[in-house]
Write a structure and sequence with these properties.
By secondary structure, the chain is an alpha/beta fold. Helices cover 43% and strands 16% of the residues. The chain has 3 domains: 138 residues, NusB-like (N-utilizing Substance Protein B Homolog, Chain A, Orthogonal Bundle), CATH 1.10.940.10; 57 residues, 2-Layer Sandwich (Alpha-Beta Plaits), CATH 3.30.70; 204 residues, Vaccinia Virus protein VP39 (Rossmann fold), CATH 3.40.50.150. A hairpin with a 4-residue loop joins strand 11 and strand 12.
Length: 442
């Protein structure tokens, strides 16, 4: 197959993946699995760049497309609408030459069995590239900030002084953070190994196993990855394990544990001082958890089950510490998952808040006197965070918040809330995370 044909297939696969998210409601992870099967390994980085970039800028690109088309495309041609967005993204946000972006996008319409739309795409993209007819014409708030209206309003209400910076951070590329396996190698020694391999990385004070790469790279190219010396995990997520284990030993539960990054970190830090049980109701994701533990040379009791229904899986032995990484809107990790902006609905938040409250109520009786639950979400919305914790504290007589941070070095990245602490997305290159430490009064 010629290079031009390969390039057109990348645009076609990107359009199909974007359309799967926008029109069919599929996650980008699932859509990419299908799309990557259609292109060569060498072309997958370009494919991912086109998919992520087009979805990050969905509202702006859609406003431009609407202004360029004389009439909207029919619903059955939604993949052509996605292909037009992919083409516009190439012309405005990449270094791909305009002639290549246009010609390969037009050819992709033929590969998608929509040859009658090739002429339309050619005319529209060339007009845009020549005249920049719509560029800069972000008339709506949605197009200006590339977020849905409801999410803009909610973040603005919750964070009136920070909302614009938060929306901008959501539209940036996420940093690639590593977690060094402290049972295998010291962080300083692994940083030296990266430097020797020509890989630039920076540390973050207070998050002792974390290193941020200057540029993302395939995990197979990381020194010692297959041998379990290092894992990929955002530094904000790495705050959870040392926070829970500060002064806590014994029987530990990781509820909602899959795919296992925090379980592995607990074991790396706790060593022989803890026995870990990891529970999740997603059996397929539990397989990933087990694979991760095996690569790292770690052992836990891994159980399928719904954490909100302990009778399914609990043997009656209480836990000294529980990590509750609760299901949430994932509004703090939009940088990594831009499809969240399209897939999440305003009506989801109340149901997620109900589930979060149910999990806290179900797990609290499993805790020993003086035991601790660390409540964690990757959300920035108050309805899922301090509102949930405040209700729980109000209704639970033997619960109190321990508001002491695991170390003072992370104070600058934390925002104190009425209950708990919040990291805003983009702060020091971190994802958005919420933490609240709850202790059982004996």
């Amino acid at each position: 197959m010629s290079d031009n044909k390969n390039s057109a297939w990348v645009r076609a696969a990107a359009a199909q993946a974007v359309d799967d998210v926008v029109s069919k409601g599929r996650s980008l992870d699932v859509a990419l699995v299908n799309a990557e099967s259609r292109v060569s390994g060498d072309d997958r980085s370009l494919l991912r760049m086109l998919c992520f970039g087009t979805l990050r800028n969905h509202w702006r690109l859609q406003e431009w497309a609407n202004s360029l088309l004389d009439r909207p495309l029919k619903k059955r041609d939604s993949v052509i609408n996605a292909l037009l967005a992919v083409g516009l993204f190439q012309l405005t946000d990449t270094r791909i030459p305009d002639h290549a972006a246009v010609s390969q996008t037009v050819e992709a319409a033929r590969l998608l069995r929509r040859p009658k739309h090739a002429g339309l795409l050619n005319a529209v993209l060339r007009r845009f590239g020549r005249d920049k007819v719509a560029e800069g014409a972000a008339r709506s708030d949605e197009a200006q900030h590339n977020h849905p209206r409801w999410l803009i309003d909610t973040i603005k209400s919750d964070w009136p002084d920070d909302w614009e910076d938060m929306l901008a951070a959501n539209n940036d590329r996420a940093a690639m953070w590593l977690r060094v396996n402290s049972r295998r190698v010291a962080t300083s020694d692994y940083a030296a190994a990266l430097d020797e391999a020509g890989i630039a990385a920076n540390s973050l004070a207070g998050v002792d196993q974390a290193l941020m790469l200057s540029e993302a790279m395939p995990v197979a190219e990381l020194p010692g990855f297959n041998e379990g010396r290092v894992s990929v995990q955002d530094a904000a997520a790495q705050i959870a394990a040392p926070w829970l284990l500060r002064g806590v030993k014994g029987h530990i539960l990781d509820a909602c544990a899959a795919p296992g990054g925090k379980s592995a970190h607990l074991l790396e830090l706790g060593g022989a001082d803890i026995r870990l049980t990891s529970v999740d109701k997603d059996v397929e994701r539990l397989e990933s958890l087990s694979d991760n533990l095996q690569r790292l040379g770690l052992t836990a009791t891994v159980l399928p089950g719904d954490a909100s229904n302990p009778s399914e899986w609990w043997n009656g032995e209480p836990f000294d510490g529980i990590l509750l990484d609760a299901p949430c809107s994932a509004s703090g990790v939009i940088r990594r998952h831009p499809d969240i902006k399209l897939l999440r609905r305003e009506t989801d938040i109340a149901e997620l808040s109900r589930v979060q409250s149910a999990l806290l109520a179900a797990l609290w009786p499993l805790l020993t006197p003086n035991g601790r639950i660390l409540y964690v979400t990757c959300s920035v919305l108050a309805a899922e965070n301090d509102a949930v914790v405040a209700r729980f504290l109000d209704s639970t007589a033997d619960a109190r918040e321990n508001d002491m941070l695991p170390n003072n070095n992370i104070r600058d990245v934390m925002r104190a809330k009425a209950c708990g602490y919040q990291i805003l997305p983009g702060t020091a290159g971190l994802d958005g995370f919420y933490f609240a430490c709850l202790e059982k009064v004996s």
